[in-house]
Write a structure and sequence with these properties.
Layout lengths: L1 E2 L2 E2 L3 E5 L2 H6 L11 E6 L3 E2 L8 E6 L5 E8 L6 E2 L6 E6 L2 H5 L6 E5 L7 E3 L2 E4 L2 E5 L6
Parallel strand pairs: 1-13, 3-4
Antiparallel strand pairs: 1-2, 3-12, 4-9, 5-8, 6-7, 6-9, 10-13, 11-12
């Protein structure tokens, strides 16, 4: 993931199926400072059973940031992204501050040509680059 040319997240796992979305990050000890999970068709998440705190970036259908929630501790029953939220990007706590993500910015996927993407059970694992820009100004 990139923001204004700086790499934010190098490894992104995409959860698109019901089963992959249900499982999310449960059971993982960490994601690492340069990884994230994108959960599709998701307007709220929980952190029950999680082992580490998360930063959450919620997006609408047009990939605009609708809400940013920092440092969500394990054990929360629900964290919502608002009525427009259509997907959420989960990363380890602290990643959002490093990237400086702001509400209203737009996410643009930039595939990393050096990365191989695998698809198994609704989960895409790879290293797509993502870039944020001002609303209406995709870079």
């Amino acid at each position: 993931m990139m923001r204004e040319g700086r790499v934010w997240v190098r490894g992104t796992v995409r959860a698109a199926t019901w089963r992959a979305r249900l499982r999310g990050l449960l059971g993982r000890r960490s994601l690492g400072a340069d990884a994230a999970m994108l959960i599709e068709r998701c307007g709220a998440v929980h952190t029950v059973g999680m082992r580490f705190a998360l930063d959450l970036v919620f997006f609408d259908r047009a990939w605009r940031v609708t809400r940013v929630v920092r440092n969500v501790p394990p054990g929360r029953w629900m964290v919502g992204g608002g009525w427009r939220a259509a997907r959420v990007l989960e990363s380890e706590a602290g990643c959002v501050d490093v990237a400086g993500v702001r509400i209203g910015e737009t996410l643009v996927w930039r595939p990393d040509p050096e990365a191989e993407t695998m698809r198994r059970g609704g989960v895409d694992a790879g290293r797509p680059h993502v870039q944020f820009g001002e609303e209406g100004k995709l870079r």
